[in-house]
Specification:
alpha/beta; 6 helices; 7 strands
Length: 198
């Protein structure tokens, strides 16, 4: 009987110790969460700068319809540089479509591969209501080296935010940077993040 009492007491000591350990771990995770700010899309220092006019292009989409990039438009434009062979692009594309719909943006997917591959990509990802162009010259103009990469252009044709986008948070950071009037979330945080409520 003594062995049963001793084992029960040891078991309760272990439960209390594990509970304290779990509480301490949860507290540390909370502290880390507060210290780590969202970084947003990684802006590479290449190509046209935020605040400069977007390069002007007039070219056909993958179905031969005329497309104009840059200059004044009725709505802001989200350029998404992507590829049919990029797994991250396939993950980001539905997010970009949803964000464009929520924010009232024109989504233009820019590729650099065969028109047939882009048509299959557009069909597989239901891009009927968006513009898809095969335009290596646009990628060269923006000096795109890695994808998926996005550029947010306002209605006046000015670049407002840009960067590598691997998640919804990265895409949303472009819109948020535009709303805050900064080049990127990183710049905003470097300036002290006044008015940011996390």
């Amino acid at each position: 009987m003594t062995l049963l009492y001793v084992s029960t007491v040891l078991l309760w000591i272990a439960v209390v110790a594990l509970s304290l350990l779990l509480f301490a771990l949860a507290r540390q995770i909370g502290v880390l969460h507060e210290r780590i700010a969202p970084l947003g899309a990684l802006m590479l220092d290449q190509g046209p700068k935020v605040g400069e006019p977007a390069p002007l292009f007039e070219l056909p989409d993958i179905f031969g319809r005329p497309v104009r990039l840059g200059g004044r438009r009725d709505r802001a434009t989200l350029l998404l540089f992507a590829s049919s062979t990029c797994p991250v692009c396939k993950k980001v594309l539905p997010i970009a479509k949803a964000l464009a719909r929520e924010e009232g943006l024109d989504l233009v997917v820019v590729g650099d591969e065969s028109p047939e591959a882009l048509k299959r990509f557009a069909g597989a990802n239901d891009l009927r209501e968006h513009t898809v162009i095969n335009a290596p010259e646009v990628g060269r103009s923006y000096r795109i080296g890695k994808i998926p990469y996005a550029v947010l252009i306002d209605r006046e044709g000015t670049i407002r935010a840009k960067g590598l986008v691997n998640s919804r948070e990265h895409l949303e950071s472009l819109v948020e940077a535009y709303r805050l009037g900064v080049a990127s979330i990183q710049d905003f945080l470097a300036e002290g993040g006044k008015g940011w409520n996390g």
